[in-house]
Amino acid sequence: FDPQFAVSVSQVDPLPHQLDAVYQHMLPQPRLRFLLADDPGAGKTIMAGLLMREMMQRGEVSRVLVLCPKALTDQWRREMWERFRERFTLVTGELVASAFGQNVWAENDLCVASIDLAIQDHILPGLEQVTWDLVIFDEAHKLSAYRYGSSGKIDKTKRYMLAERLSPSTKHLLLMTATPHKGDPENFRLLLALLDDKVFGSQGGLTRAIEKDDSPYFLRRMKESMKHFDGRPLFLPRHVDTVGYA
């Protein structure tokens, strides 16, 4: 009966752009493969938590993995508990080493870990043995891959290869970053290819997939477009000027 049930049962007061992202762009996708690229300060963690909670209430998701920079792991655990009452297990190297004969990734349905832990050679095999309902990569611009020269050789970082290996083992994949484009169109295409390597197999496919306002793969809003419910701007205006100097 409640189309926004996750809002009702969570400790959040979401803003219009957050409700729009979750309920108009992401939840309608039967298989979510999405890059959320709103400006900094938009509350992408809250949007991810609302999405997760709504999917859980609908019986769509039970196993969730969050991979982010180490400095953000405690913030993710705190936000998920305080706002959504979901207790995530922080997977560390010490926890993996102490779980003799057990796979901590399989034993815990809700996990958060540093992406630089997950790429380590002694950690990755256990992670690859399990499947997830939803995988979230925060600061996804760190998943870098580049194409060099006329040879077409692609140089992939370990972080990118981790995402490439986990992508097939999860139904829903959410990438989050405030800086999705580094000025290199091919780097941007390779990032989106983690979502669907066929759709984003070429620059033409990328253009067709993300240019629509209701793109099923991509959403980016600038601070200037974010408003309160009464129409007041959410952020102070930005004034950009280039100052000359001697």
The strand line-up of the biggest sheet is 3-4-2-5-8-1-9
Q: Categorize the overall geometry.
A: globular
- The mean pLDDT is 92
The Cα radius of gyration reads 19 Å
Estimate percent helicity: 25-40%
Count of individual helical segments:
11
Structure description:
With 246 residues, this protein is of the alpha/beta class. The protein is 35% helix and 17% strand. It contains 11 helices and 9 strands. It has a 7-stranded parallel beta sheet with strand order 3-4-2-5-8-1-9. Helix 2 packs across helix 3 and helix 3 packs across helix 4.
Provide tags for this entry.
11 helices, alpha/beta, two-stranded antiparallel ribbon, seven-stranded parallel sheet
How are the secondary structure elements laid out?
Elements: H1 5-8, H2 16-26, E1 33-36, H3 44-57, E2 64-68, H4 73-84, E3 89-91, H5 93-98, H6 104-107, E4 110-114, H7 115-118, H8 124-128, E5 132-138, E6 145-148, E7 153-156, H9 158-166, E8 170-176, H10 185-193, H11 203-210, E9 218-219
Parallel strand pairs: 1-8, 1-9, 2-4, 2-5, 3-4, 5-8
Antiparallel strand pairs: 6-7
Question: What's a concise summary of this model?
Answer:
The protein has 246 residues and is an alpha/beta fold. 35% of the residues lie in helices and 17% in strands.
